Amino acid sequence: MTLTYPHPIRVAHSPDADDAFMFYAARSGKVDLEGLVFEDELKDIESLNQACFEGTYDLTAISYAAYPFVKEHYRLLSVGSSVGDKYGPVLVAKREMTQDELRSAKIGVPGLKTSAYLALRLWDNDLKPENLIVTPFDQILEKVQSGELDAGVIIHEGQLYFAKSGLTRIVDLGVWWFELTNLVLPLGGNAVKRSLPEDVQMAVGRVLQRSIAWALETPEQRKEALNYALQYARDLDPALADRFVGMYVNDYTLYGGPPVTRAVKLMLWMGQGIGVIPEKIVPDVLEIGEPAQNACCAKA
User: Fold this and answer.
1) Is 13 noted as a catalytic residue in this protein?
2) pTM metric for this prediction
3) Residue 46 pLDDT more than 90?
């Protein structure tokens, strides 16, 4: 299938191993792009969330917690989700802390529109918002270590090595969420711009799904995509990088379907109930279909 579309598709994702792994096959011409041309930019997730307010990109990684604020510009895709399946962002400190102590503590968070922030507020809505300090995600560990912050919510690969930094887990928000809901914790997704023609939106989703499927299809292809992703792994050794990618690029990423949509809706509705999300919405998800419907790994 080949489309005629006169503009490049502007793609934005975070400079992380999991996103790089997802997009490798599309970037390197391993899969059918359906005649589309893709231009990509790398930014941290909070910057991407902010860019969504302006509708800057055609396809963008986005925190699920940010979606209600940008729903006029974007639709979610049923592919490209990163979810925590009994794991997720981790609240850490230099020592054990009670919830009462945390309610007067300075806690680093990676952004006020991130799913990690929303999950933290759902875990304990009595935490004082003025004490939740927005901090670049890659600086939270060191600021907790130094005592500049009393605690911090760790995302990305920091979830795998915070203990080696001498920090203590207060709560794994993915574990807490599963025990509460029996659902995965929806963290990040991919959203496509509403102003694109419908056939282009669908094609963009299919290309993303093919790219993910290619990277997961065989051990050899996984290794090739992982080797590319290592440049974004922030000094993780290959084994840890492989573990991290496996946590957030998996069958739920290839096709989220009803389980992810149900989890997103519940998280956002609960967020509305505590005042973090402005209104109760039903997520608008563009259904790409399961991989078997998408000739997923073939290059035209």
Assistant:
1) no
2) 0.91
3) no
> Which of 111, 15, 30, 91 minimizes the C-alpha distance to 296?
30
Distance in angstroms (rounded) separating the CA atoms of residues 300 and 96? 55
Q: Is the pLDDT confidence value at 300 over 60?
A: no
Task: Give the per-residue pLDDT at 294.
Answer: 62
- Above 60 in pLDDT, residue 35? yes
Q: Which of 7, 13, 73, 156 is catalytic?
A: 156
Whether 289 has a pLDDT exceeding 80, the answer reads yes
Cα–Cα distances in angstroms (integers) from residue 17 to residues 23, 174, 229, 245, 294, in the given order:
10, 20, 5, 6, 25
* 47 neighbors 86 (Cβ within 8 angstroms): no
Paired residues of 27 in beta bridges: none
Kindly give the residue spans of alpha helices, DSSP state H, lying in 154-237: 158-161, 173-181, 198-217, 219-229
Name residue 219's amino acid.
P
What is residue 254's DSSP assignment?
H
pLDDT at 47: 79
Maximum CA pair distance of the chain?
A: 59
3-state secondary structure of 221: helix
Shortest CA distance to 12 belongs to which of 47, 53, 64, 54? 47
- Examine the pLDDT at 17 and tell me if it is beyond 60: yes
Q: SS3 of 213, please?
A: helix
**pLDDT for residue 293:** 61
Q: Which H/E stretch holds residue 134?
A: strand 132-134
CA angle, corner 106, sides to 104 and 111, nearest 5?
Answer: 125
| Whether 186 contacts 122, CB under 8 Å | no
- Relative to beta strand 59-63, strand 9-13 is parallel
pLDDT at residue 296 in the model: 47
CB 120 within 8 A of CB 274: no
